[in-house]
Specification:
Signal peptide: 1-26
Radius of gyration: 19 Å
Low-confidence stretches: 8-22
Protein name: DUF5050 domain-containing protein
Keywords: Signal
Structural class: mainly beta
Distance between the termini: 50 Å
Largest sheet: 4 strands, antiparallel
Number of strands: 24
Length: 316
């Protein structure tokens, strides 16, 4: 049997062993008891965070498998947050629907909301903290601006705001730092690669993206492969961004039911959030480019009346 065929067979067998964690009362649960479009999950300084976007809140826990109703609430008055990043003390999340950023400081008594940075026009959509530069980076999806922020005396300040014309006024949902460069997912029918450490964000490379993959959500490099999530309903990996004909379908193999959104890596696993028509968080391990231990950690299925009503509260 060829290696690719063996990999497919093994992944199918693994899917048969996936542990489902859908609560029996998911259809009738209150919004506080379940997720609705959890855009992002991450781990920072021993704490797990979920941006429960369409429930307009951010929650956190010391146990990633704890039932959602038992997670602590960082903020439940934040309009459709997409991600959160932190340096261990200072944390920044997008108040996407209000075009601003919210800053939280971790103190000995817990989290304190310390700043609201307004005027980040155009839907701030993705925030990353980069230890190499000790700076935060925030991308606005509608206006194609990249904000660079730093922490001075415990206070977050905006260092620069750069418009990225090579995005061609397209809606760009995310970016990642890969091998010392910044990779922007395709909005303008291309994956774009830029310098960022010198503050110029000058374009270094671009890869054409075929139709069907252009509305990308996220990109990560894991092992030899680039992993890419796409709106609607595609999750793929490939070794060469110049050749999408080699893309391996992970969406079907892993049993996704909604839109695969942002990815993250912690605790030796890759985590992928699932949003829109179906809310869940999936994880898997990668060793020598082989995928194993596919799991569904939080599975809440289609939205119920409680979360649909919660989404309408802030109208975004």
């Amino acid at each position: 049997m060829r290696k690719a065929g063996f990999r497919t067979l093994m992944l199918a067998l693994l899917m048969a062993l996936v542990v489902q964690s859908t609560p029996t009362n998911a259809a009738t649960a209150t919004y506080a008891d379940r997720l609705y479009s959890p855009m992002f999950i991450t781990k920072i300084s021993g704490l797990y965070f979920i941006t429960d976007s369409w429930n307009h809140r951010i929650i956190y826990s010391r146990d990633v498998k704890l039932p959602i109703r038992e997670w602590k609430v960082l903020d439940e008055y934040i309009a459709a947050p997409h991600s959160i990043a932190g340096n261990g003390t200072i944390f920044i999340a997008e108040d996407t629907g209000r075009d601003r950023l919210i800053v939280y400081t971790l103190t000995t008594k817990g989290f304190v909301r310390t700043q609201a940075i307004s005027g980040i026009a155009g839907r701030p959509h993705r925030t990353i903290y980069d230890p190499a530069t000790q700076k935060f980076y925030v991308l606005t999806s509608d206006t194609q601006n990249m904000y660079t922020l730093s922490v001075k005396d415990g206070h977050v300040v905006i260092d620069s705001k750069k418009n990225l014309p090579y995005m061609e006024a397209s809606y760009v949902r995310s970016f990642s730092i890969i091998d010392g460069l910044m990779y922007f997912v395709s909005g303008p029918n291309q994956i774009l690669v830029a310098n960022y450490k010198d503050g110029t964000f000058s374009l270094q490379q671009k890869y054409d993206v075929p139709e069907g993959y252009r509305a990308m959500n996220d990109i990560k490099k894991i092992g030899s492969y680039y992993y890419i999530t796409v709106y609607y309903n595609r999750f793929i990996r490939l070794k060469d961004l110049s050749d999408f004909s080699t893309a391996e379908d992970l969406y079907t193999k892993m049993g996704f039911k909604g839109v695969p959104y942002y990815m993250s890596y912690f605790d030796g696993k890759v985590y992928v959030t699932e949003i829109d028509s179906y809310s869940a968080i999936r994880s898997f391990k990668v060793y020598n480019d082989e995928i194993s231990k596919v799991d569904v950690m939080h599975d809440y299925g289609p939205p119920n009346a409680a979360v649909l009503n919660r989404k309408r509260i802030l109208g975004t």
